[in-house]
Amino acid sequence: MLHNFQAAYTLADSLYGVTATESDFEDIALDGWERIGNKHTRLYRYVGDVVNGKLELPCNVADGIIESVHVPIPDSQRTHTTSNWEDISNLWTESFIDFQKVNEDPYWTRGKYVKYDEGNGVLYFSHDYKRVMVVYHGVLMDEDSQLPLLNDKELRAVATYVAYICLYKEGIRKRDANIIKLAKDVQQEWLKLCNAARIPEHLSQNDMDRILDVKVRYDRKQYGKSLKPIL
């Protein structure tokens, strides 16, 4: 189950009594999320027009992972050196093949692949194409807040990271050694939860046992390392 990013704010308040402004919370929580490194993604399809050779990508493109870029033109070739038009029979053949693939593969999209360059969230083209379709891996985000969704372990880890940073900042501001020491204790809890959150949820304890068989001696196994919540 994936939770709204804002749920980490409520959890941080419930577990540690920590409050922060909305902007501070988002900055700190996103930093913690990035440190965990997990990104829940799925395939998206985005359609847009190229303007002045540029097409801006959506903000949820995961690490620039783009599967394909198409334009809605049949991928046929000219067969005569004296004509600028594709062979009609070739066009019919390509259209028939495209029709057969409609429900076959989520990576496939009808049309012709086009060349592009990518940089800073923008695709660059040599022509101003219309209705360019981009198939990409995008981070799952909440529709309202446009912030990433978190699973159970990530939610707890992010909330603890927010508590650690807020307590540490408060200790520095007040020059209070006791608060700084408390922040250090919360930091250790954050490191443990971060390590647990990095283990994919689909790995069972049996899978972890087999992984540990490969990594360490039998007498050095640490069972329950994935720290899965028991429901």
Describe the structure.
The protein has 231 residues and is of the alpha+beta class. It folds into two domains: 105 residues, no CATH class; 99 residues, no CATH class. The chain is 40% helix and 16% strand. The chain has six helices and seven strands; from the N terminus they run ααβββαββββααα. A four-stranded antiparallel β-sheet has the order 1-7-3-4, with no helix packed on it. The chain has a three-stranded antiparallel β-sheet with strand order 2-6-5, with no helix packed on it. A hairpin with a 2-residue loop joins β5 and β6. α1 crosses α4 and α2 packs across α4. The longest helix is centred in the C-terminal third of the chain and has 23 residues. The radius of gyration is 25 Å and the shape is elongated.
